[in-house]
Amino acid sequence: MIQINLLPVREWRKKEAVRQQISIFVLSLILLIVGLLAVGLTIQGKVMAQKQELASLEKNRSKFVYVNKKIEKVNKKRKQVEDKFKAIEKLQEGRTTTVRILDEIVSSIPIDRLWLTKLSLKENNVQLGGVALDNHTVALFMRRLETSPMCRSVNLINTKQKSIQGHDLMEFGLQVNIQIQQVNDNDNKFTERAKKS
Asked: Rounded distance, CA 121 to CA 126, Å?
């Protein structure tokens, strides 16, 4: 009978299997290193591109610093001009308000029966003083002021009889409370009508 020794073949197969596993491990390791190098190079390329873009943006920013300073100066000047316009509008509003109040008072005076000698305007209060032919004339003047849309209230401060150049007249004092909002609304309507015509 012939005997075949299979032991070296088994050893050879074991050695071959180990060699294959080592080869696969080495190839896997090489592929992993190559992959990592490829990823590293890609990331490095992106980083370099970002650095170049950042440098370009820094150059552009230095160009626009001058423009930004100009814009800031223009904005400051614009704000100053707007503040001046607001101040002018406020002065204009105050000027027309006083004129409207005086016009309302003058139009309420009974002609040739009442004369004003004092007038003071503080905020929304008007102090009036004057002489009239009689108490009825003073009452008529007060009623006319009360019917005005600008007057909130009219209060009689005092009356007394006074002789002026041989005539007995009534000296009086009034306090008139003005609705400033109503005066401003009337001024705005008046201004709008003036612009249209």
From this structure: 5
